[in-house]
Write a structure and sequence with these properties.
It is built from 13 helices and 9 strands. Helix content is 35%, strand content 18%. It has 351 residues and is an alpha/beta fold.
């Protein structure tokens, strides 16, 4: 997504170009410590938490943005063993095995790893990374449009190929968009070898492909300013609609979520192999899983905290969709077949 442009980003933001230079932040033995946190462009956390962390530990956090998650991981793979950052946050389960195969991480999981919700607790790539948050990518529906046109909304993604939904859906290009890739993986997980036939039928039914979530949701989706009443977005997009509405805020979202055919994304943090700040970097991973930071996650990045027992804001408990059976593929399968899948998808869609 994500709807968080107005939140504070933290520390000094530097370009991803430094990933290929092997300079490091200051060493553990010399003076005040600065830890460079490599994150995707969507990383946000409240500045007060960063300030408190520095007050408690003496560690200054600098954020290094690496573009979207795919670009960030590609840079980290190239710099494996000689990173200019110390910690990476935001690598998700579709990209994790690529980084693991490239030996990007040192062995470390957060000291509080047992606080993670049971379904994610063992998801550490053998002790290399720590789950920090998760969310589900799903079809979002403009309820106002469907009511106005006296048309029932679909209840599963099979129906998206039906004539009654012709020219109503916009998706993101999986080669350039994380939610777009998640939706492609959802269709592969659901239809197996029949996934190409599904996309052929979607294409014949007039699906529109946008290059990014921002373009799809904010320009093409009818709940924003477009003309298509269905879009690939997140199960947490409806509460974000409320949070970012201008006053007077609506009492409920104008959109809902098709909770079938969703793909679960899990985001991780890990210490980068070769860091000169091993101990301090481990403290930053611990901090990302700490209760205060986890409580900040929902309204900062509009995803669910990985830590169990974290109170959710009311707008989340009230309007975030619960997905009963999110789909996932093994990370190793994604890593082995992703290029082939993307090439095939491009051929099917004529792109």
């Amino acid at each position: 997504m994500r709807f968080h442009a107005s939140k504070l980003t933290i520390g000094l933001v530097v370009s991803s170009g430094i990933l290929l230079s092997a300079c490091s932040s200051n060493t553990e033995s010399s003076g005040p410590t600065t830890v460079r946190l490599l994150a995707h462009d969507s990383f946000v956390v409240s500045q007060s938490l960063v300030d408190q962390f520095k007050k408690d530990t003496g560690i200054t956090i600098e954020v290094t943005t690496g573009g979207d998650a795919g670009s960030m991981v590609a840079g980290a793979v190239l710099a494996s063993g000689s990173p200019s950052a110390d910690v990476m946050f935001g690598i998700d389960n579709t990209l994790l095995s690529k980084a693991v195969d490239a030996d990007v991480f040192s062995s470390y999981t957060a000291a509080d790893v047992n606080s993670i919700v049971p379904s994610l607790r063992e998801d550490t790539a053998g002790g290399l990374v720590t789950p920090i948050d998760y969310g589900d990518v799903c079809i979002n529906i403009d309820d106002v449009w469907f009511a106005k046109h006296h048309l029932a909304a679909p209840t599963n993604i099979d129906q998206l190929t039906s004539k009654q939904y012709k020219d109503l859906l916009v998706v993101e290009d999986p080669a350039s968009s994380s939610p777009g890739l998640a939706f492609l993986l959802a269709t592969i997980a659901k239809y197996g070898d029949g996934w190409t036939k599904y996309w052929e039928e979607l294409n014949a039914n007039g699906v529109k492909v946008s290059g990014s979530w921002t373009d799809a949701y904010e320009s093409v989706f009818s709940a924003s300013k477009g003309d298509r009443p269905m879009v690939v977005s997140y199960a947490t997009s409806p509460p974000a609609e409320i949070v970012y509405s201008e006053a007077p805020k609506p009492s409920k979202p104008s959109t809902s979520v098709l909770t079938e055919g969703c793909y679960r994304q899990v985001e991780f943090a890990g210490v980068l192999r070769g860091t000169q700040n091993e101990a301090a970097a481990q403290k930053v991973v611990d901090w990302l899983l700490s209760a205060p930071v986890q409580a900040d996650v929902p309204l900062s990045m509009f995803v669910f905290p990985a830590r169990s027992g974290v109170p959710l804001p009311k707008v989340f408990t009230k309007f975030a969709a619960q997905v009963p059976k999110p789909m996932q593929l093994p990370a190793s399968d994604v890593n082995s077949h992703l290029n082939e899948w993307l090439k095939t998808w491009g051929q099917v869609m004529g792109r």
